[in-house]
Design brief:
By secondary structure, the protein is α/β, with parallel strands linked by helices. It contains five helices and five strands; from the N terminus they run αβαβαβαββα. The N and C termini lie far apart (41 Å). The model has no long low-confidence stretch (mean pLDDT 87).
Length: 137
């Protein structure tokens, strides 16, 4: 059983490493942030809080874009914390990069380490989460 799990992870790693770059949309206001969560309905939304000066973000950005190509059913967005301080404060974000995952408007996961493995595991996990519809808060 463990052997199959490791094999699946290795196959997925190869698939991600060789994938072309996907698309990440930029959210530039609290209104576009809220609209993105509403439009997503029950799709998973991955929002990355970044900063232009952030070295760890620059190092992992290509991996995030590849994951955006592999996980097409997930909507990927980027928010520049320096340009959108109000969103960062409202979502209690103080570290770049911070990855937040939403489903039906509710945050279902969050982490701050720039790790492709952690990002892949979190994407795999949050896609399986079933929650009841709730309005955006």
């Amino acid at each position: 059983m463990l052997h199959r799990h490791k094999r699946r992870l290795m196959i997925e790693e190869i698939r991600v490493r060789t994938a072309p770059l996907g698309k990440m949309n930029l959210l530039d206001s609290m209104d576009t942030f809220k609209e993105a969560l509403i439009r997503a309905k029950d799709a998973v939304v991955c929002i990355t809080f970044t900063a232009k000066w952030c070295g760890p973000w620059r190092m992992i950005k290509a991996d995030v874009l590849r994951l955006a190509h592999v996980y097409k059913e997930v909507q990927f967005y980027e928010i520049d914390m320096d340009d959108n301080v109000d969103i960062a404060i409202a979502r209690a974000v103080s570290v770049a990069p911070t990855f937040q995952f939403y489903k039906l408007g509710a945050m279902v996961a969050e982490f701050t380490e720039p790790s492709k493995l952690k990002l892949t595991e979190t994407l795999r996990r949050v896609r399986k989460i079933n929650i009841h519809p709730a309005p955006y808060n």
